[in-house]
Design a protein that fits this description.
The structure holds two protein chains of two kinds. By secondary structure, chain A is mainly beta. In chain A, 10% of the residues lie in helices and 39% in strands. The chains are: A mainly beta, B alpha+beta.
């Protein structure tokens, strides 16, 4: 069998490489192209070569190189005669530059029997596209507990951006007790109920008939004391959950409203922002976290007009403990803000008794922002956020990638 | 067992009248709140059985209420009164509502021989008002149990001495006001955590409330315990037994700053939510309890 002379490498890139020789060997044409021509990391593509007059089982070698680069990303080989199918799984494709490019073009070069062909069109590898914020909304249940999770997700360069706007309103806490109609000292000698407040160390009730505050007949600990949240309506303060109730006088304007908002936001940012990464677990790239990995950036903002979640900054006479909706201006623990915001992202409680535990794991941990000590975030707290992000990303690119959250 | 509304209503009406012999009625009332859940109280009564009350912290951090567990034979009149209040509220027609995490959880569980009915609602539910007379009865049961001392009852004591010259000094004590020995979790032992402390607190007198405006209440700030080495028993152990009626005093005197000698209110606080590592035979008392406040006269 005669051998044809080798082509000049200057011919590379023409897509079709005819032999320059006028030797007696038959003319052999070699072409190569990508199939398909667009892909995401992890997709399976192929370099399809076509040739004429090749011997059976001719060896083919290919290199895959980013456009403009000199070093190959990968090499593949195979055999064929008239056609060469060299499969390749997209991986190790780095999107570098500022701003980060949306695509990376890969050139395939096929060498068969000394002939070289280059893909006339590159393989366009896309990264997860930058998107504007998209709303996420779901609810969680745990035993008797139920709550809504609302925020916005977007991918921007290397970041998964989680933005949440809390619609904050001022509110005030009042209290009420029911009277025991039994005679004193075991009861109050009267029935019904009344608003109560503390005046110095004295607990007083609102005596409707005389429109005045009077000392409670018994020690405050002898009553079942209930809370009622009020919001301002004109010059009155009406019940937030029962608008038929009106506090009998005015409440003061909270003096620490802005400073507590700042402290709460700082806590939320420090607990959740830039602590974790969303990592694609089925990314085939060899260098971990070099691709398919996003910093989870959290930004929480206040709004007094609208937001993803309505909550209340509540003034109270005594130190109170906050919950998902009512954040007490008297609550001394800033970690409460990170905790409650964790619920909004989809995290469960991790304290006993009666926490809203993850029904799948019943995880309890004190050293946790969701636990007894309101300390730090753990990867598992973003499990629901991870699932929401996976749903979004897979929807955007029509894939079924899997993800985890890592520190 | 969920029973029909009518059957439960009939059972409750019978119980509110003349309870038939052998008829069954058990009612539980649970309140919890906080992130984490620091406040809790649970009261129950069973016809022909027991009435019980347990709390880890009263719902108002004032008044000097004890924490612990109490139990006595159920008062027949109390059973009838609870049943009557449930009938008055038509409890069988009331339904549960979702509770968000950390929000006050309220639960009433009614078990009759005709079926059970449970209502769980958050603290902002209007059902609290509808069931307020039921709660009056439960509060009466709790108050009666505390007064009877039938149980393990931890109370925090404040010993405040204000000499004519120099700063006032305060000491913290604990007393078991129940008739049962109990195991008290020691907040001064073990790894520190934000909810474990034994301390003196002071609150400046708030300005007089202006007519027509609800002013701030007392805002207590903790005063530091003096530096100390190893404390004598029982203060070195993670828990200790406090016998019925026994009183222990922390052998540390807290100096009240002279700045507080302007009508400040002083109180002592015990707080420890830990649980023993192993099951205990004695009732375990844990939670948070406040002494009654005393005022340092100006």
């Amino acid at each position: 069998m005669s051998r044809c002379s080798r082509p000049s490498t200057e011919d590379a890139g023409s897509g079709e490489t005819p032999s320059r020789t006028t030797a007696t060997c038959p003319r052999r044409l070699l072409r190569v192209e990508w199939s398909p021509r667009e892909a995401y990391c992890g997709d399976r593509v192929a370099l399809i070569g076509t040739a004429q007059n090749m011997q059976p089982n001719t060896e083919a070698n290919a290199s895959i190189t980013p456009r403009g680069a000199t070093a190959a990303t990968d090499r593949v080989r195979g055999t064929g005669q008239d056609t060469f199918n060299l499969p390749w799984q997209v991986h190790n494709v780095l999107f570098t530059g500022t701003p980060k490019p949306q695509t990376c073009e890969l050139i395939g070069r096929l060498v068969v029997e000394g002939q070289l062909a280059e893909t006339p069109d590159p393989l366009v590898v896309r990264r997860v596209p930058d998107r504007g914020p998209e709303a996420v909304s779901f609810h969680l249940t745990s035993g008797v507990y139920r709550w809504d999770c609302n925020y916005n997700l977007q991918v921007q360069n290397d970041d998964l951006r989680v933005t949440i706007t809390l619609h904050i309103q001022k509110a005030w806490l009042g209290k009420w007790v029911s009277f025991d109609p039994a005679a004193l000292p075991g009861g109050d000698g009267r029935s019904g109920w009344a608003f109560v407040k503390q005046d110095g160390a004295t607990w007083k009730y609102w005596h409707t008939s005389s429109s005045s505050w009077r000392a409670l007949p018994r020690n405050i600990s002898a009553y079942t004391v209930n809370d009622i949240i009020f919001v301002r309506s004109g010059t009155s303060y009406v019940g937030l959950d029962d608008a038929s109730q009106t506090w009998p006088e005015a409440f003061p304007e909270p003096t620490n409203y802005e400073s507590r908002k700042t402290a709460w936001r700082n806590n939320i940012q420090s607990v959740w922002d830039n602590q974790f990464k969303l990592l694609r677990t089925d990314c085939p790239s060899s260098a971990p976290r070099s691709c398919c990995c996003w910093n989870i950036r959290v930004e929480m903002n206040w709004s007094e007009t609208s937001g993803d979640k309505q909550m209340y900054a509540v003034w109270s006479q005594q130190n109170e403990r906050s919950n998902a909706r009512d954040w007490y201006l008297s609550d001394p623990d800033d970690g409460m803000a990170g905790h409650e915001c964790g619920h909004l992202f989809g995290a469960y409680d991790e304290y006993l008794p009666d926490g809203a535990l993850d029904p799948a794991t019943n995880t309890v941990e004190n050293d946790s922002i969701m636990g007894q000590n309101l300390t730090r975030a753990h990867e598992r707290h973003f499990n629901n956020l991870r699932d929401q992000a996976a749903s979004k990303i897979n929807g955007w690119i029509s894939r079924t990638w899997t993800f985890s959250v890592v520190r | 067992m969920e029973g029909s509304k009518d059957a439960i209503a009939d059972a409750l009406r019978r119980m509110a009248g003349t309870p038939p012999a052998g008829a069954k009625l058990a009612v539980e009332r649970l309140r919890r709140k906080g992130t984490p859940g620091l406040w809790s109280e649970e009261t129950s009564i069973e016809h022909g059985g027991k009435q019980r009350y347990a709390t880890i912290r009263g719902f108002v951090d004032a008044g000097g209420a004890p924490i612990g567990q109490w139990e006595a034979t159920a008062d027949r009149d109390a059973v009838q009164a609870v049943a009557a209040a449930l009938v008055g509220a038509k409890v069988w027609e009331l339904a549960s509502a979702p509770v968000s995490p950390g929000a006050e959880l309220n639960r009433w569980r009614v078990a009759t021989d005709q079926g059970e009915h449970t209502i769980t609602v958050p603290g902002n539910s209007t059902l609290l008002m509808k069931l307020s007379q039921v709660d009056v009865q439960f509060r009466r049961i709790a108050n009666a149990l505390i007064a009877s001392r039938k149980g393990a009852a931890l109370k925090c004591l404040l010993d405040l001495k204000a000499p004519a010259q120099g700063p006032a000094m305060a000491q913290i004590g604990l007393v078991n006001e129940g008739d049962q020995d109990c195991l008290v979790m020691n907040p001064l032992a073990g790894l520190p955590d934000p909810q474990s402390f034994l301390r003196i607190e002071a609150a400046a007198p708030p300005p007089p409330q202006q007519p027509g405006v609800t002013g701030p209440g007392l805002r207590y700030v903790p005063l530091p315990l003096p530096e100390h080495g190893k404390l004598p028993d029982p203060w070195g152990a993670e828990s200790f037994v406090l016998k019925a009626g026994e009183r222990v005093v922390l052998p540390l005197r807290v100096t009240i700053p002279l700045l507080a000698h302007k009508g400040h209110y002083i109180r002592a606080v015990y707080s420890c939510y830990r649980v023993p590592a192993t099951p205990q035979k004695l009732p375990v008392v844990r939670g948070c309890t406040f002494s009654t406040e005393q005022r340092l006269e100006p």
